Amino acid sequence: MLAMLIMMPIQAQLMTSFTAEPKFHDPEVKYSKKSTSFQLMTDNDAQEVMLNIYDTATGGTPVKSESMAKYCTSPIINDKSMLWCTIIYEDLKGKFYTFNVKKDGRWLGETQGVRAMAVGINGQRGAIIDMKDTNPKRWNKDRSPVIAHKDLVIYEMHHRDYSIDPSGGFTYPGKYLALTERNGIDHLKKLGVNAVHILPSYDYASVDETRLNEPQYNWGYDPVNYWVPEGSYSTDPNDPVARIQEFKRMVQALHKAGIKVILDVVFNHTFDIDNSAFQRTRPGYYYRKNADGTYSNGSGCGNETASEQIRMCDYIIDCCKYWVKEYHIDGFRFDLMGIHDIKTMNRLRKELPDVLIYGEGWSAGNCALPQSMLAMKANISQMPGIAAFSDEMRDGLRGPWDGDDKAAFLGGVKGNEESVKFGIAGAIQHPQVDMTRVNYSKAAWATQPTQMIAYVSCHDDMCLVDRLRASVKGITQDELIRLDLLAQTAVMTSQGIPFMLSGEEMLRDKKGVHNSYNSPDSVNHLDWNNLKRYPQVMEYYRDLIALRKAHPAFRLGDADLVRHHLEFLPTQDCVVAYRLKGHAGGDMWQDIYVVLNANRQSRTITVPDGNYTIVCRDDQIRNIGLDTFSGTTVNVPAQSALIFHN
Ligand code: CA
């Protein structure tokens, strides 16, 4: 695109003061002991921008107010952006700031800006800090563990769920620092997961950081400041440095344990429109509108952002790059990724080539952009290296999303076998998966198996235990555990990237609550005593994950290899059986057989005549073998997985 930089008349002092020219992608605040420079991007017809400096994060009156200078218009044709700048030659460390933009003759209201990198309590004002003060000791030595995407095992967690209950014995319950504590880290290491996906941890609105002594809970899908960690998970939200430093300490501790850190990002909507920083800097620009001029609501949360606008696209990409650079984040899970446009996601993939990118390949309502342009699951083949959740596999196992009492494969409902097979193959085209009988999708949508996230439960909807109780008629405790283990065996032996909800390994329940986004701790917390109550569950999960990690056959990472090595055996009702043949992926085992039997009775499977070693049966997994058999048939116990090899 033709680029032309039009320099606007500005104060001579300003021209000479910047050591480097402010750029549209730059931070809004650059601090040094000698001076602090500020910049803000607005529409090019904005009339004035005021900068206010405060002593406090809330209340009081400005100790200084300055009218900012127009610096330049956008070099991009048709981009009606304007950059405003000012420098204050004082040491402003510890102060707070807001901007106020005048447009069409009215002031839009004070805002912390859209790229605040430090904020005061509840994120209402930006904070001026020296980012160097936020780095923990040896932060420059922090390195992400090197793990290929195909080898990841993702653990989805919420800070408060994980550590709030006294049974966990945490010094910092509900805080970032819980994940620096030995009990918090050791559990993850023992389980064997190598990536944590933390629910929204940027600054969000729904927990009042001034009232943390009162019970409050939220998942945090209501973003306010995308570039700053949430304050309620820090030990002191009044201190703008604390949340940043503690977040980094968490990342550092996880990395040291060999665990990658994935951030749940919610760029698709904001908490509200009217008071959002987006709206107060460029009204109407960052949100999509319907043809009639009303705001579109593809998020189901009252608005949807417009990634097709160049500065919104920049915003998403700059923000992700910032989290990678400043916080050493290893991946992003995009909430309602289907609201963003394909071009934006592909640009992100290109600009951050190493990080894991996956998301929900759907929206929560109609978007004001054609489906063909959106980062929907059906369009994943146009986004190489980007993954989406497989609701085909999830619902093929547990039952459909529109009814908690409806069962599927796990509940012994026949007809879901092809959906489970689709998930086992990693959502790629496979000659033995009959797409006419797969739920939701009538075509394989992944080009590579690593473009599919394999899962049976996540924070949304009922957790696995609750769903099994709600959908499987007359389920006994023994059956509950058997089906729970069977479900995760399907997930952990899938060629997709396996993903589990935190606490499933300790048979977590949420008291049957379907949407626990603001439920009390008593619903959402992990009860660590469950590890003692159901030790076999944790042991099975641990051994199952270890089995996956020990055997490349389960994570081939390439569609052609999967089609070559993965062969399904004849399907019976509520039985999915397959083999990974010919030392798949260089596996030490020649042919690995996996049989998933969801029936309330045992089933017999026919195999080629041979001598076999059983490594998984009932609730036990042992890599060196549990038992052996010879011949052409084997019995698969009810509601469980059988894995063996020759
Ligand atoms: Ca907050």
Structure explained in plain terms:
The protein has 646 residues and is of the alpha/beta class. It folds into three domains: 2-110, Immunoglobulins (Immunoglobulin-like, Sandwich), CATH 2.60.40.10; 148-554, TIM Barrel; 567-645, Golgi alpha-mannosidase II (Immunoglobulin-like, Sandwich). Helices cover 22% and strands 21% of the residues. It is built from 15 helices and 26 strands. It has an eight-stranded parallel β-barrel. α6 runs parallel beside α7 and α10 crosses α11. The chain starts with 11 loop residues before the first helix and ends with a strand.
Low-confidence parts lasting 5 or more residues at pLDDT below 50? 1-16
- Strand order in the largest sheet: 10-11-14-15-16-17-18-19
Instruction: Give me the CATH superfamily of the largest domain.
Output: Glycosidases
- Please identify, by name, the CATH architecture of the largest domain: Alpha-Beta Barrel
Q: What radius of gyration results from the CA coordinates?
A: 26 Å
Give the number of domains. 3
Mean pLDDT: 96
Q: What's the tally of helices?
A: 15
Distance from N terminus to C terminus (CA atoms, Å) equals 60 Å
Number of strands: 26
Strand content: 15-25%
Q: Biggest sheet, open or closed, and with what strands and sense?
A: 8 strands, parallel, barrel
Helix content: 10-25%
Short synopsis of the structure:
This protein has 646 residues and is of the alpha/beta class. The chain binds calcium ion.
